[in-house]
Amino acid sequence: MTYLERASELRKLLEQYQRAYYTTGRSQVSDLEYDRLFDELAAIEKEHPDALTEDSPTHRVGSDLSSDFPEVAHTIPVLSLDKAYSAQEVYTFIDRIHRSNGAASFVLEEKIDGFSIVLYYRGGILERAVTRGNGSVGNDVTPNVKTIKSVPLRLSKPVDISVRGEVFLPVEEFQRINLTLDEPYANPRNLAAGTIRRNKSSETARVPLSIFCYEGFWANGGFDDHIRILSELKTLGFPVDPNLSYFCATEEDAAARLVAAGLEGRACAYEDLPAEIERHTAERKSLAYEIDGLVLKVNEIGFREELGYTEHHPRWAVAYKFEAPQAQSTVEDIDVQVGRTGRITPMARIKPAKLAGSVIKNVTLHNQDYIDSLELAVGDTVAISKRGDVIPAVESVTEPNTQGNTTWKMPQNCPECGSVLEKRGAHHYCPNRQCPAREKGRLEFFCAKKQMDIEGLGPRTLEILYSLGYIRTIADIYRFDWNALVRDNIEGFGEKKTQAIARAVSDSRRTPFRRVLAGLGMNEFSHKAIEILQNAGYRSKQSLFDLVSDPEKALETLTSLDGIGPLTGAEIISGLTDPDNIALLNSLEESGLCMDDSLSEAPRASENQIFAGQSWCVTGTFEHFQPREKAMEEIKKRGGSEVSSVSRKTTCLLAGKNAGSKLAKAAEYGVRIVNEDEFLAMIGQKPVEVHEPEQDPEQDPQGSLF
Predict the structure, then answer these.
(1) Distance of alpha carbon 543 from alpha carbon 511, whole angstroms
(2) Which of 111, 297, 321, 497 is catalytic?
């Protein structure tokens, strides 16, 4: 391939990725891969000027132009930053600056992983909020940005000013919202970007976005250095990231200048830079928001002007990027999984690869649109990463296959039942409710620990029972004569084991109604939604049926509850009026399952609300609370609330065995740590000695049936 052909190929790729990100808020490739392609194109154009074209992405900073919002010209430079991927590159930047001006000082700021915005104020009133766009023109998203509470609508002084900032979504809020989405976002940045581009500002208002501002440009003169600009931005009412470091020749000099500027920050000498980079990197995971790097800037504004700009970035700043762990592997096959709702999820089976301490063999590919964006085919060599350090993802195709395989396409028919698949939004679905995969998925979900917790009915056992025709529906679990397993001499099911399963099924009849309801897996009937309904008084099957008897009135009632919006409300009504769901609930009631939590749980006296006003996080494994959600139920009964992660505001961490990172974070923040015995004493339950059960000679020695 000639350099002209490669340059043309790179331009097409970069334009494709820019359009996808700025119009949908979702990345097709990692930042690292995008930067690598951009740098490769820039290098080709520098070495071969004839390869440079007028439409090259190197003339721009990316594009988020959308027909949904009016285009507005920027009145200030809105450029990107030069990037460094090692601390040594940052030191080289400082050396270069000091060769020009040995007295220059520097500010090190966190690089917020969010969505860039420019705020324009006239007379101290917010006039316009504009996306970065191509650096010259952006989209006017003022109504949406006005819904962000941390964005001041009126400043403390009647000034004309343009302010650059980064809109972001706090990690805890991202995790909460992501649990409610059919297709979770990969990271808070993508969700924030998508939210800013909502067509209705009322939808944006429901997402608790925030902002940090980091540059200010005054119409009638400004300030001589960056730390004074940040100080004045705070005075005007803008949120400014407090976690910054300021570098001078000596720590004392830096401290004095910070005091003079009226700005909080960490005073450092030049030689402290390596330690500061290490500190910021180490503290990254404990922040309430995500950062993807650090930004080092020359502090003196006059010297910035002397250094000037390139077409792409200012010469007075550099971004140090945290590099996400990546590995390479080969896609050996792609198949699909059919979920209990019928959704089809393509899965890449890759050659095992070590990544961030684990071996990755399977990677979800989300949907056909995601695969098309990668142009992914079987046999391709791919770069994989752990998004958010957790979710394995294919970031890009690094080398196409040599077998001639083309982009993989979704099958037309369900691989389990043969039904023609339906496309709904970005996903394909099997419409057949009697599809074996869907039926088995519903059984597994119902019996799982977080729902009914029926010991002995794990996925492999249910697979055997389903294949033999004994159990096909949830109702069959309670109608089946378990002695038939012994009478029919089913291999692996002796009398002792069968009796244990029968007892577990019988005991599950006492499970609270809220968990029975969650176990049905109806759309939007999450544990949290059910908790909201129960707190509003809808604690029984009959009260819920009465609620939805008038759908129009029901929707009004549901949307008046904090935490339930119109879409969730409509799904709740749909689920409770579905004939199959009604028949199933009635059948389970006939089988003796609890259908009224107001009867099964007596009201608690006020003196028993020992955890009222407290927030608890639960982690690890426990002897007396299996699954651990049972411990959280005890906390909620006594007035406490649940949080999914530890923060400085968390009251207590209930820590079992193998508590992991949450335990370390609680210790760091000074959060009270409670062990299992202490917790049992707090709730008035004396610890009971636990004996290991005798080995069942009929059980598979590997426990394969369970």
Answers:
(1) 18
(2) 111
Let me know whether 129 and 260 are in one domain.
yes
Inter-CA distances, 122 with 117, 158, 264, Å: 17, 8, 28
The domain in which residue 205 lies consists of 71-321
The answer on 228 and 195 residing in a single domain is yes
pLDDT tens for each residue of 432-473: 999 999 999 999 999 998 899 899 999 999 999 999 999 999
Distances (CA, A) of 283 to 91, 276, 286, 651: 21, 10, 5, 21
Q: What is the CATH number of the domain that holds 136?
A: 3.30.470.30
State the CATH number of the domain containing residue 47. 1.10.287.610
Residue 651 in domain: yes
Residue 314 is given by DSSP the state: B
CATH number for the domain that contains residue 668: 3.40.50.10190
DSSP-derived secondary structure letter, 229? H
- Reading the block at residue 407, the tokens are 């982009």
Least confident of 21-30, 145-154, 227-236, 578-587: 21-30
The residues facing 83 across adjacent strands are 319
Catalytic site includes residue 111? yes
In a domain, 220, yes or no: yes
Q: Are 272 and 247 in contact (CB under 8 A)?
A: yes
pLDDT tens sequence across 478-502: 999 999 999 999 999 999 999 999 9
Candidates 392, 433, 396, 391; CA nearest to 416 is 433
Closest CA to 127 of 95, 158, 166, 93: 158
